[in-house]
Amino acid sequence: MSVLLFFVVSFLASTVGAICGIGGGVIIKPVLDMLRLETVSAINFLSGCTVLSMSLYSVGKSLLKREQAVDLSIGTPLALGAAVGGVLGKTMFSAVTQQFRDAAVAGGIQAAALGIITLGTLVYTFWKHRIPTKHVRSPLACALIGLALGIVSSFLGIGGGPINLVVLFYFFSMDTKTAAANSLYIILFSQTASLLTTLATASVPEFRVSSLALMIAGGISGGILGRSLNKRLDNRAVDKLFLGLMCLIVAICVYNSRILFL
Question: How far is residue 249's CA from residue 262's CA, in Å, rounded to a whole number?
Fold first, then answer.
């Protein structure tokens, strides 16, 4: 029964993630931490693989259909920067984990950091209509922004999450659905780099193969459904879903970070 939860969580998270452009990892990671179905390192790895499978499907489908949602002149430097950041973030998390005997403490730190970032995202989203945005076009600036996104997302084990959308809103003046498509493009690169680093350094944690298979299946099927729903929803509906999701994530992160205060 517990194994089936991996599919359910990844399917629902990837569906919402594909709609909002947050990848699903920002939901998968805290929910699995809360359920304690695997170790912190295993959850990071499983979450990353799931997000990669979902983003690969969504971005691949979009490119094959030649949809113009992703501005490659902006998205590619962002994605390449995120790929480098994904490697650095992975290294940083490994270094932090080694500082604690109890891996759960590292998980608590991740939860607290994710909660703070998500809360900031929630506040920005409420007030974004009053905040002047930028129109960054420089490839170097895009790459540096992508680098920062990759570090944060990989360190937190969330793939990309809401921080991608806020950055795309503010620095590139994108609307919600355009930002969602570009966010998934960035996530694809950062998660690929993170996975390759894990494999190259032989640091794959122990996990159940059945859990990985079910989560990838859930990620891809959720990506299919989420992509379909994204086309039917307008920006206002996506915004509402995104805000509700952020409130839920903050609440879960508060619960998961309680270990730091015990």
Answer: 21
Containing structural domain, residue 238: 2-261
- Give the tens place of pLDDT for each residue, 12-62: 988 987 888 776 778 888 888 888 888 888 888 898 888 888 888 888 888
Residues 6+ apart with CB under 8 A from 93: 44, 106, 110, 154, 155, 157
Instruction: Please state the three-class secondary structure of the chain as a single string.
Output: CHHHHHHHHHHHHHHHHHHHCCCCHHHHHHHHHHHCCCCHHHHHHHHHHHHHHHHHHHHHHHHHCCCCCCCHHHHHHHHHHHHHHHHHHHHHHHHHHCCCCCHHHHHHHHHHHHHHHHHHHHHHHHHHHHCCCCCCCCHHHHHHHHHHHHHHHHHHCCCCCHHHHHHHHHHHCCCHHHHHHHHHHHHHHHHHHHHHHHHHCCCCCCCCHHHHHHHHHHHHHHHHHHHHHHHHCCHHHHHHHHHHHHHHHHHHHHHHHHHHHC
Q: Give the integer Cα–Cα distance in Å for 138 and 129.
A: 24
Asked if 145 contacts 81 with a C-beta cutoff of 8 angstroms, the reply is: yes
d(CA 256, CA 234): 33
Maximum distance among all Cα pairs of the chain, rounded to whole angstroms: 52
pTM of the model: 0.82
Q: Alpha-carbon distance 107 to 93, whole Å? A: 10
| C-alpha span between 183 and 174 (Å, rounded) | 11
Name the domain count of the chain. 1
Tokens of 225: 């459904």
Burial degree of 21 (CB within 10 A; 0-12, 13-18, 19+): buried
